[in-house]
């Protein structure tokens, strides 16, 4: 494994990991053998792997999600394929189909926790994936499993169609000459196959180089820098420390942690440049992280504990109007057009990422405060778009002052705010 990180090397590492992924042993397992299989594949103490799973499980259940995926996609030691692959007809697995279906169903809520589990859950999953990636890059050459042969119809094992058996070749029995020489195709010096008894002789050497000829220059392979890999590992350490510190200090919000990661990777890229160009592949991580960091810094929103999706409310009486309508990610639609013509009501609509829409009666006296950190505002007869838009409007309707009074505070941190007459 090389020490630099680039898009090609990451893809190569991931493909190699999938082709030689760990197998779950029968011995030494505690639950399904996922931790034991990883430890056996990379020749490390299984206690370390189990402690890592427990630590990631404390990150809002990230370790549980990773373990369930390992149970589904890592085959047992004597199985042809994993339980998930057997479920779609790719081969045989000793895991019962009913158990596989239950595991797949259990992944669904675990994935939901990943989406709604906040920064700690997402960071725990990313940290687990990064740790497995580094483990394979550093120790992937150890204890590599034998490649699995293609399985033919009827459930044949390895060697089907390869001519491996009790003295039989591809076309049946092996001839006497083939048994003598252990070779089926003639060498280059006997293309007609006239002397099969001598096929075990070595190939003749090529023509000697002329005296005084200048030998071809030998290309010296430049040693690749390990700055990129070391920087990536340091970033994972910073991420792990930030996840732990976020439980004790309010400073470790997502945007601050992303800033720390970008700073570490940027320092690694500068160090790599000074040492000959190492760590350039980190740019594929720095750029998207920087974009997300700028977005989080420009727009102050937090999705934890907020609902997701679209919601619609149409209260018919003043008592049915709630004090606040909120959504973390999605859309809130509030129709106040059916309220009575007298009385007063005050409410707020807050959306972190998405759209906030409110309809008010034609003749109501409306005082509305519309705000968006980044997006567009259509606040009765005023409209604007861009960053930090704020419109405050007081409108008495078609019949002038009097009647129903509505006070609104409508906000979307990132999205659209609309307040219209019904």
Characteristic key phrases:
single chain, 422 residues, alpha/beta, two-stranded antiparallel ribbon, 37% helix
Strand order of the largest sheet: 3-4-5-8-6-7
Determine the mean pLDDT: 76
Number of discrete helical segments = 11
Query: Level of helix content?
Result: 25-40%
| Biggest sheet overview | 6 strands, mixed
Q: How far is the N terminus from the C terminus?
A: 65 Å
Poorly predicted regions: 148-181
Strand content: 15-25%
Rg for CA atoms: 33 Å
**What's the SSE pattern?**
HHHHHHHEEHHHHEEEEEE
Secondary structure: number of strands: 8
- The coarse overall form would be elongated
Structural class computed from helices and strand pairing? alpha/beta
Could you give a quick summary of the protein structure above?
This protein has helices at 7-19, 34-42, 46-57, 62-73, 83-87, 97-116, 118-139, 176-181, 227-245, 254-274, 283-298, and strands spanning 168-169, 172-173, 308-313, 324-335, 344-360, 365-379, 382-395, 405-421.
Structural account:
- There is one protein chain.
- The protein has 422 residues and is an alpha/beta fold.
- 37% of the residues lie in helices and 20% in strands.
- It has eleven helices and eight strands.
- The strands form two sheets. Strands 3-4-5-8-6-7 form a six-stranded mixed beta sheet, with no helix packed on it.
- A hairpin with a 2-residue loop joins strand 6 (365-379) and strand 7.
- Helix 2 (34-42) crosses helix 3 and helix 6 crosses helix 7 (118-139).
- The relative contact order is 0.08.
- Mean pLDDT is 76; it is low at 148-181.
């Amino acid at each position: 494994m090389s020490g630099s990180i680039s898009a090609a090397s990451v893809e190569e590492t991931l493909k190699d990991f999938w082709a030689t992924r760990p197998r779950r042993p029968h011995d030494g397992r505690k639950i399904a053998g996922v931790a034991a299989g990883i430890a056996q594949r990379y020749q490390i103490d299984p206690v370390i792997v189990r402690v890592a799973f427990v630590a990631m499980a404390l990150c809002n259940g990230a370790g549980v999600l990773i373990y369930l995926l390992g149970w589904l996609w890592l085959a047992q030691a004597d199985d042809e394929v994993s339980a998930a692959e057997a479920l779609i007809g790719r081969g045989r697995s000793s895991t019962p189909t009913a158990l596989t279906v239950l595991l797949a169903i259990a992944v669904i809520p675990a994935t939901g926790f990943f989406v709604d589990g906040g920064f700690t859950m997402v960071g725990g999953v990313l940290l687990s994936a990064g740790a497995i990636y580094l483990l394979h890059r550093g120790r992937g050459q150890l204890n590599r499993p034998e490649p699995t042969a293609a399985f033919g119809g009827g459930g044949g094992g390895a060697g089907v169609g390869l001519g491996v058996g009790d003295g039989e070749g591809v076309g049946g029995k092996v001839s006497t000459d083939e048994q003598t020489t252990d070779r089926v195709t003639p060498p280059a010096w006997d293309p007609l196959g006239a002397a099969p008894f001598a096929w075990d002789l070595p190939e003749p050497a090529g023509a000697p180089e002329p005296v005084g000829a200048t030998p071809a220059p030998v290309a010296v392979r430049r040693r690749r820098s390990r700055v990129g890999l070391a920087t990536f590992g340091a970033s994972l350490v910073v991420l792990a420390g930030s996840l732990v510190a976020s439980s004790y200090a309010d400073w470790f919000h997502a945007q601050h942690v992303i800033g720390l990661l970008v700073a570490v990777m940027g320092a690694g890229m500068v160090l790599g440049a000074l040492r000959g160009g190492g760590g350039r592949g980190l740019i594929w991580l720095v750029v998207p992280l920087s974009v997300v960091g700028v977005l989080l810094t420009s727009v102050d929103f937090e999705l934890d504990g907020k609902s997701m999706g679209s919601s619609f409310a149409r209260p018919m009486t003043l008592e049915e109007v709630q004090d606040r309508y909120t959504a973390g990610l999605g859309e809130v639609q509030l129709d106040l057009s059916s309220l009575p013509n007298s009385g007063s009501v005050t409410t707020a609509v807050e959306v972190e990422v998405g759209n906030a829409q409110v309809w008010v009666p034609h003749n109501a006296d409306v005082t509305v405060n519309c705000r968006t950190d980044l997006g567009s505002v259509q606040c009765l007869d005023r409209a604007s778009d861009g960053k930090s838009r704020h419109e405050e409007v007081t409108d008495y309707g078609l019949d002038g002052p009097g009647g129903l009074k509505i006070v609104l505070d409508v906000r979307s941190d990132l999205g659209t705010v609309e307040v219209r007459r019904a």
